[in-house]
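Re: folding output
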Amino acid sequence: MTALLPADRRSRNAKEKGAVTAEFAVALPAVVLLLAFLLAGGAAGITQLRLEEAARAGARASARGEASGSVDGIVKRLAGGGVTSSINGDGEWVTVTASSAVGGALGPLIPWTLKASATAREEVGTP
């Protein structure tokens, strides 16, 4: 058994036909843009954590007396191939700085460069 709608209800529904599709078409780009920014923020967070860990490991290796090429290799292995690193020391303390561009969905559009540095005391008796 089907219920019949009053004539005014039928005409109102006919006028609103496609309204949900239009609202969805307006809202979808905003949702996609929000998702892209969330993914870019996540990529930036992951990149920062990788840079911090790479700088920390590089500083430890340099403090033990590793050669600068070896320290650079450690930093690149932990943070990825696109990382640049620098080693500065004053005889007592050594600082390793790692920097890299953020990848991800918006990485090519937004030129983010993140940086992390770590300092360690040079071990006594190392070359």
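--- second protein (sequence, then structure) ---
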Amino acid sequence: MDEINKTNDEIEIDISALMKLLKKNIKMIVICTVLGAVIAFLVTNFFMTKKYASSARIYLIPKVTEQGYADYNAVNSNSKMVNNYVSLMQGETILSKVADELNIENVEEVKNSLSITNVNETEIIDVKATTDDPKKSQAIVSKTVDIFFKEMQEKLDIKNMTISDQPKVNDVPVSPSKKMNTVIGAMAGLLLSCGYVFLQYLFDKRLKTKAEAESFLGVPVLGEIPWFED
């Protein structure tokens, strides 16, 4: 039982000493935390490439019955065809024409900038482009949708599509996030400074108290020399 209590006391003393060391270095920890946040903010604001997005939404219009209701079979047919339309829009035929008309040399650049998805298995398709230029993002989306509509109408005689949301030039960057990166920078500064203090404590082999000396030497301490400040 004595050994257990002794071990627990040692752990408690260690934690107490570590907390005191952290408190002693609190100024340095705060400075490192603030410095990390400031550096992350400056790097994000001045050195990281900003990305801008533009998007459009395509809606497949279902056929209407004579009674004025949406044709159930047409709705099911549209839902099944949506994924096919997404694949066609992502294909080389459409994207190469987009690149040619926008004077973009590499088709892969257009492909990598685009995100074309079916919204929750509905008759809606979202087309989104993300680049380092807001006007370029809008142009890629607009041209992709225009060429896709033209191809579908001329080659497949599909005319039941409309654009419910037009692509716009968005001057507000979608990435990088200043707030998120600043928080990450602050956390990095906090963790690094606390880690430094912990390592400082871990490798400090000096005996600082009477209890530590008795535990290390295995003999009682007969006297102490007082420390006087100058």
